[in-house]
Amino acid sequence: MTSASSNTLPAALLLMGPTASGKTQLAMELASRLPIELISVDSAQVFRDMNIGTAKPDAVTLAQFPHHLIDIVSPEERYSAAQFRSDALCKMAEITARGRIPLLVGGTMLYFKTLREGLADLPAADPTLRAEIDALAADHGWPAVHAALARLDPASAARLKPTDAQRLQRALEIVRLTGQPVAELYARQQADPPPYRLLCLALLPSDRSILHQRIAQRFELMLQQGLVEEVEQLRRNYRLDAQHASMRCVGYRQVWDMLEGQLPPGQLCERGIYATRQLAKRQLTWLRSMNAIESIDPLATTCGRTLLQRVQQFLD
Q1: What does the pLDDT look like over 178-230, one tens digit per residue?
Q2: How sure is the predictor about 3, in pLDDT bands with cuts at 50, 70 and 90?
Q3: Looking at the domain assignment, is residue 32 inside a domain?
Q4: 201 has which bridge partners?
Q5: In this structure, are residues 152 and 178 in contact, taking their beta carbons and an 8 Å threshold?
Q6: Beta bridge pairs of residue 174
Q7: Containing structural domain, residue 270
Q8: CA-CA distance, 161 to 203, in Å (whole number)?
Q9: What is the pTM of this model?
Q10: Of all helices (H) and strands (E), which one includes residue 37?
Q11: Residue 137's domain is classified under what CATH number?
């Protein structure tokens, strides 16, 4: 976005941050003051009927501040970064055509990366091969899949945990389909930035302990609001298992394990909080590795004013 013609491109705003950092509230404050439409960048909020555990804005809030790309797929379906990029660019074009400004807000860093940089030339999913990998996992556990990946692509295996089922499945699938390490395929990726002048803002809390307190309070509130009952309802209404992407979302995974008898009920809250903190840690690691972003401290009392001033300066 540094070309001489970049100033002629329409503006778009990206507001990124870890879970519980206050992204949604800040985005809505901006939308109340500027001609902005919101696009959710959240790999969990895409699923219908998953409201409590995804911290999805409630119906009253969504009526006042509509979010694009919320509630767009069934919990039984997959939704990829490639699908997100296509959908997001389509929504951004529609918003721009209305003379308004797209603001993409969320915490799924892979989606942001894919939107900003484009897609690597990776093979499409192969149902037969995926079934083979799933069978290996069912018979011997995901550590066996991890070991198989380590033999073919040690670098990818070193980057992934033996329990990270979704990413292990995709990495082994790619390596077996292409015969090449995943990193080599990404290294040959051609830059394909979106046709927008981007302001990329990251919420980076100055005090990690306060973020941890927020995470704990929010997960406890989710349980009080009926997260367990929400998962029970999902199990009744959809044909789900533990390998569905929807049920691997933080919070849902821990409730699923409890309902399956794999996690004592008394440990649910502690496990859910721990998993959410680990998610926030990964999100912060992503943010610190990304270039061309500006950071704002969401814990500062002047955060909202600073954010508004920076956005207005960018738009002017």
Answers
A1: 898 888 877 776 678 899 999 999 999 999 999 999 999 999 999 999 999 99
A2: very low
A3: yes
A4: 15, 294
A5: no
A6: none
A7: 6-119+189-315
A8: 27
A9: 0.85
A10: strand 36-41
A11: 1.10.20.140
Cα distances (Å, whole numbers) of residue 278 to 41, 196, 274: 19, 32, 6
Tokens for 305?
Answer: 């004013």
Contact indicator for 228, 255 with CB cutoff of 8 Å: yes
* Strand ranges across the sheet with 197-203: 67-68, 36-41, 101-106, 11-16, 197-203, 294-296
Burial class (CB within 10 angstroms; exposed 0-12, middle 13-18, buried 19+) of 9: middle
Domain count across the chain: 2
* Residues 206 and 133 both lie in one domain: no
Alpha helix (H) residue ranges in the chain = 23-33, 59-64, 81-97, 109-117, 127-140, 142-152, 154-159, 165-178, 182-187, 208-225, 227-237, 252-259, 268-289, 303-315
| Nearest-angstrom CA–CA distance, 73 and 43 | 11
Whether 153 and 299 map to the same domain: the answer is no
Residue 1, domain member (yes or no): no
Q: How far apart are CA 132 and CA 174, in angstroms?
A: 13
Q: Is residue 289 part of a domain?
A: yes
For residue 228, which of 271, 174, 187, 182 has the smallest C-alpha distance? 271
What confidence score (pLDDT) does residue 280 get? 97
- CATH number for the domain spanning 15: value is 3.40.50.300
Are 159 and 206 members of one domain?
no
pLDDT score of 1 more than 60? no
Q: Which of 168, 187, 206 is the last residue of a domain?
A: 187
Residue 139 structure tokens = 């018979």
Residues 175 and 194: their CA atoms lie apart, in Å, by 28
pLDDT of residue 219: 98
For residue 20, tell me if it sits in a domain: yes
